[in-house]
């Protein structure tokens, strides 16, 4: 099973009829549905939300990402021999900081900019965003590749953070399409279980399932390539300790999104609970719960890893 196959009916992972016998080690993304599912969820969450306009803007970006997926149809899958070599060495086969990008990713970037300028879902594109997009169009290939390298290495300079939003979105499409062409049975989890087994990136959030024959299993979703991998519950994904863990949430909130905080390393990560809402989406629900990030940060914890689409956070 691939991530997203039953997303429209609310079963992000698992089969409510009980077809899964044990937690799958990892679930590869389905690029044909991945970003559309996030766009739809963002639109749902925007209704009555204090940041409704921004969530609709991000929904438009996710829809633009979905449209950009088609530009990567000619892209061949990763070389099987290189994948096998990386897996044997317990390394991610699509290592974000070492992968040699195909030039097609830049066409994806262009399509994403074109689609984003239209302001879909009835939301106007902010003037600041339009200015950033116009600036990106004037930049040469070398500058764009440098910005991509900076993003993947975690070294984006403050003045480039606005531009990095669109570069990050394009790279998410590119790496998600590559990951979707891998064979799950040929991959292995990394020794450092808190990192994606496909590209080595940190997760954007975790999902605790409520369907299938193993409800309650936890999966982390990669912030870059959208791969989901199983990770034991009640263990900090940053330091691996269990004794200092607790959950924090916003009072009177339905409880679908919680912050799992660790008193040992003083970090936290977002966890989504299907038992509270079967429609949760790791990217969309993370963006819609930034108030929880503020609450937890003020209490003294640091986020495990940022959402690539909220670099300024």
Can you tell me about this structure?
It contains nine helices and eight strands. Strands 1, 2, 3, 4, 5, 6, 7 and 8 form an eight-stranded mixed β-sheet that branches. It has 313 residues and is an alpha+beta fold.
Key attributes of the depicted protein:
11% strand, globular, 313 residues, FdhE-like fold, 8-stranded mixed beta sheet, alpha+beta, disordered N terminus
DSSP strand (E) fraction? 5-15%
The general outline is globular
Low-confidence stretches: 1-20
Main sheet makeup:
8 strands, mixed
CATH top level of the largest domain? Alpha Beta
What's the pLDDT, averaged over the residues?
88
How far apart are the termini?
34 Å
The CATH topology of the largest domain is what? FdhE-like fold
CATH architecture of the largest domain: Alpha-Beta Complex
Tally of structural domains: 2
Q: What's the multimeric state?
A: single chain
Counting DSSP H or I runs of 4 or more residues, the number of helices is 9
Q: Helical proportion?
A: 25-40%
Name given to the CATH homologous superfamily of the largest domain: FdhE-like domain
Which structural class best describes the helix and strand composition?
alpha+beta
């Amino acid at each position: 099973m691939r991530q997203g196959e039953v997303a429209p009916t609310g079963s992000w992972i698992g089969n409510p009829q009980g077809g899964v016998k044990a937690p799958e080690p990892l679930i590869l993304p389905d690029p044909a549905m991945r970003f559309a599912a996030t766009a739809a969820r963002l639109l749902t969450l925007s209704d009555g939300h204090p940041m409704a306009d921004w969530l609709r803007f991000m929904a438009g970006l996710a829809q633009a990402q979905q449209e950009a997926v088609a530009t990567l149809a000619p892209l061949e899958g990763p070389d099987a021999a290189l994948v096998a070599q990386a897996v044997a060495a317990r390394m991610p086969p699509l290592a974000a900081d070492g992968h040699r990008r195909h030039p097609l990713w830049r066409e994806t970037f262009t399509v994403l900019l074109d689609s984003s300028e239209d302001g879909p879902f009835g939301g106007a594109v902010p003037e600041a965003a339009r200015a950033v997009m116009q600036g990106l169009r004037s930049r040469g290939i070398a500058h764009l590749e440098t910005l991509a390298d900076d993003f993947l290495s975690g070294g984006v300079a403050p003045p480039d953070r606005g531009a990095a939003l669109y570069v990050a979105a394009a790279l998410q499409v590119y790496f998600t399409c590559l990951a979707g062409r891998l064979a799950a049975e040929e991959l292995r989890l990394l020794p450092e279980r808190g990192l994606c087994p496909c590209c080595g990136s940190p997760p954007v959030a975790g999902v605790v399932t409520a369907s299938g024959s193993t409800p309650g299993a936890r999966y982390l979703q990669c912030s870059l390539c959208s791969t989901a991998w199983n990770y034991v519950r009640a263990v900090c994904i940053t330091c691996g300790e269990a004794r200092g863990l607790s959950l924090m949430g916003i009072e009177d909130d339905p409880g679908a999104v919680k912050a799992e905080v660790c008193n040992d390393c003083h970090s936290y990560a977002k966890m989504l609970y299907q038992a509270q809402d079967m429609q949760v989406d790791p990217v969309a629900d993370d963006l819609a719960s930034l108030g929880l990030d503020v609450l937890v940060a003020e209490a003294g914890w640091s986020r495990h890893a940022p959402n690539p689409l909220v670099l300024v956070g």
